[in-house]
Design goal:
This protein is an alpha/beta fold. It contains four helices and six strands. About 15% of the residues are buried. The mean pLDDT is about 85.
């Protein structure tokens, strides 16, 4: 099977006008190894994008709350909001934090980076950590989460 996959990768590489390579399949069968190691042998460097994304929408009648993305990191679930305008509240993020009993969130926005302790509305005395990052830093999310949250 490995040999067939490597042959297919070589055929794709040699195809004129090739499109980006999309690999799908069962988990833990060597897709990442194939792209990162064999691809690097053929091209010198490789860029990978993991498109397994999740979002959250409140499951209640007339619910109007949703979080843009939900990510998993080090056994922790983090809501991620993207705000492209000057205005915009974090009402849905705060709703998620209350319902799921989480203490951290991420916001991408047009402002400056900051790690803040924010009072959670509706929960007296409860604060959460909000990591606010500029939109251009999205590619550095994993590194910045490690630096900010450990």
């Amino acid at each position: 099977m490995k040999r067939i996959a490597e042959l297919s990768l070589s055929e794709w590489r040699d195809r004129p006008g090739r499109k980006p390579l999309v690999l799908r399949g069962a988990r833990q069968v060597g897709k990442t190894y194939l792209v990162e190691h064999r691809g690097a042998e053929h091209f010198g460097s490789v860029v990978t994008v993991d498109l397994e994304l999740f979002y959250w929408a409140r499951e209640a009648c007339n619910a109007n709350a949703e979080v843009d993305f939900v990510i998993s990191r080090n056994q922790e679930i983090l809501p991620v909001e993207v705000k492209t305008g000057k205005t915009g509240t974090l009402r849905s993020t705060f709703q998620f934090l209350r319902e799921k009993r989480r203490k951290r969130a991420v916001r991408f926005h047009t402002g400056s980076p900051a790690l803040e302790q924010v009072k959670l509305p509706g929960e007296e005395g409860t604060t959460v950590q909000l990591l606010s990052l500029p939109l251009y830093a999205v590619g550095q999310l994993n590194r910045l989460l490690g630096a900010s949250f450990g």
